[in-house]
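Chapter summary example.
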Amino acid sequence: MKDLISYIKGKITYKTESFLVLECNGIGYKIYVSNTTISSLKEAEEIMIYTFMNVKEDNISLFGFLTQQEQDIFYQLIGVSGIGPKGALAFLSNMTPQEIILAILSEDVKTLSKIPGIGKKTTQRLILELKDKVKMETVMQLEQPLEATKTIEKDEKWEAIEALTALGYSKQEAMQAVHTCYQEGLTVEEILKLSFKKLIKF
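The structure predicted for these 202 residues follows.
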């Protein structure tokens, strides 16, 4: 059922903080999207949006994504017990797909737990169920840039990655090094020292 409508092309006729109405062939589709998507779109704009249809006994809802990568991570998130479509959308409203994957790979409970409505137990379950399903290489293939605006405050891990890229290392090198050595509680300086050792070995 989730693939009944893969995508919709049309004009935005109305939008709020949580959903937009997309008109296609005289039909207005109410589509729930992330805050990031809403902020990047304008009324009367012509777009193509990938969709997920959520069917319940008393309700049918559409959720939308500007990229297939965003849609893919949404599917993975709702596959985790305790995370529904609205919870998955909360992740995408606060973090980019790259950030979600990197947080899972580095088992960053602190960052993932900052998502509204997502508790520590759910976060731990999310990491346990998805850490073997996502790959570091996937981060580099996603369309949304790492520097995209986030509502979650940058922590030591992200500062270390930015510092390494500023020193001339590629984003992939920086993320791999930081992911390998990151432990909660380390300062930026400590992460950088450990990352440099890893980078020398790469």
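To summarize the output: The longest strand covers residues 46-56.
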